[in-house]
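Posting this for the archive.
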Amino acid sequence: MTGSTPHFPSITSCAYARALERAGVFTARERDRVERGLRSILIAHRKNPRLVVESKAEDVHTYVEQELEKRVGRLALKLHTGRSRNDQVATDLRLFLRSRCEEIEKSLNDLLRAIGGMADQNREAILPGYTHLQRAQPVLFSHYLLAYGEQFLRDRERLRQTSARANVCPLGSGAVSGTVYGIGRDELARDLGFEMSSDNSVDSVSDRDFLLDFL
């Protein structure tokens, strides 16, 4: 779902490395090495966006793990302390969806401005309004256009609601029942730009309702 870009796996891993430093698992030097390694993966991908696709990794998360280990050695394995692929993927999915919601909303706003502008330019134009495939009543062209504006406004509202429901951070939920390491989940959520951390670890790693809302 996060596609063939290492962006979100790297972003969440950088934030988690900082959380592990706060928990005393990483030293400042180790955290810095990991973050620099992750940033170099992103730089390499920007230069060649096909790196993930052309690799033998089963998915983008495995790709990031393998590339990080090439750069920082076994320190890359330490990054998984207290973290599972379950909460990592759940977090990446939410970040991915949230970014797509932002992109779509920008496009919707452009479309709404275009509709409003066209309606304003055609205030006096009249066209026949149809019902049951027959001409029924005259209607202003601007009024007809703004009907589509109303529909897209509802779409934008639903999009915002979807983004809000996805704006909860599962990272730190572990495989299913949390972690014993004091990573500071609320601070981790803020670091990733989430409104809050999730409450229930079992639900956090299994919830995909927000994807259905988006679809």
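The first helix runs from residue 7 to 22. The mean pLDDT is 94.
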